[in-house]
Design brief:
By secondary structure, this protein is mainly alpha-helical. The protein is 69% helix and 2% strand. It has a single domain, classed as Heme Oxygenase, Chain A (Up-down Bundle), CATH 1.20.910.10. α2 runs antiparallel to α4. The longest helix is centred in the C-terminal third of the chain and has 38 residues. It binds fe (ii) ion (2 copies).
Length: 284
């Protein structure tokens, strides 16, 4: 059975966690630094959210996944079952069950509150949202990494590998953000601000920080735990339902892991640099 251990050669989780924590620390420098960091993070996550259902649909359209134990080969296609295990990661992105709005709307709700905390006028928010050109090429890379061809098993497995890495390390990234930005500042002004703020939706009222913690924290398993388990299950289904060996699947998926490590490291290093530079410019 394929597990996270099989991908040690492609992804150094400790060093990635370190890069993420360092960027979060930079974000705590000031309310404006925090807004800038989170604005970039929301934009970065945006592309993952709609790439997931596209990949699950492409897998669903493929004829490459067949159950070899089924007595009637013409009825053995299992693509949709495999695609479903990718699709589960998209469900809350579209509809969070507690608030009935998308995760994207929740993320913008957090940005609304962070802008209020930083006392940013609309013109400045607009300026920040229109800057950050460095993100464009990374977002393109995310889109490409999630692309697979229905008749090309290697490309599909590579994309599934990228997805598995995203869902597995996604747990870490939200819990690191929660720990460095919120938990360690619980008693400072930011912690108090968040605890006194609410976001109201027709279906329910939540903390603006809900979008972060719903994915998982150091103490709680959020939605990412199931996403990760399902993504690994999809990878193991590839071994069961295709002609590729387990070793071959690990090799192809490993390329997706490596691509994820590269993109994720680049994002957190670049956002740290941008936040630092903008704070230095303000101080000058
Ligand atoms: Fe999400
Ligand atoms: Fe997820």
């Amino acid at each position: 059975m394929i597990t996270l251990d099989d991908f040690q050669p492609w992804l150094d989780i400790d060093s990635l966690n370190h890069v993420m924590a360092e960027a979060c620390r930079e974000a705590t420098a000031s309310p404006k630094a925090l807004y800038l960091f989170m604005q970039r993070y929301v934009r970065y996550g945006r592309n993952f959210s709609f790439a997931v259902p596209i990949l699950s649909g492409i897998i669903g359209s493929s004829h490459l996944f067949q159950d070899p134990t089924h007595p009637i080969p013409a009825h053995a296609e299992r693509s949709m079952d495999l695609g479903a295990k990718i699709f589960t990661a998209a469900v809350e992105e579209f509809i969070d069950p507690r608030t009935n709005v998308s995760h994207r709307t929740l993320s913008y709700g957090l940005l609304d509150k962070l802008a209020e905390y930083a006392n940013l006028p609309n013109a400045e928010i607009q300026e920040i949202s229109q800057s950050g050109a460095w993100l464009s090429s990374l977002l393109k890379q995310v889109q490409i990494a999630y692309q697979g061809q229905p008749d090309d098993l290697e490309s599909l497995v590579r994309a599934i590998g990228f997805h598995v890495a995203t869902e597995t390390v996604g747990d870490n990234e939200f819990s690191i953000i929660n720990s460095v930005i919120f938990s360690q500042q619980r008693d400072r002004s930011f912690g108090q601000f968040i605890r006194n703020s609410k976001l109201n939706f027709p279906q329910g009222t939540v903390s603006p920080w809900y979008w972060i913690v719903v994915h998982g924290t150091l103490d709680t398993k959020g939605v990412e735990q199931r996403h990760s388990a399902d993504a690994f299950s999809a990878l193991n289904d590839v071994v069961q339902y295709s002609s590729a060996s387990e070793t071959q699947v690990i090799e192809w998926a490993g390329q997706g892991f490596a691509e994820f490590a590269h993109i994720q490291t680049t994002f957190f290093e670049q956002v740290q640099r941008e936040v630092r530079n903008s704070m230095t410019a303000l101080a000058a």
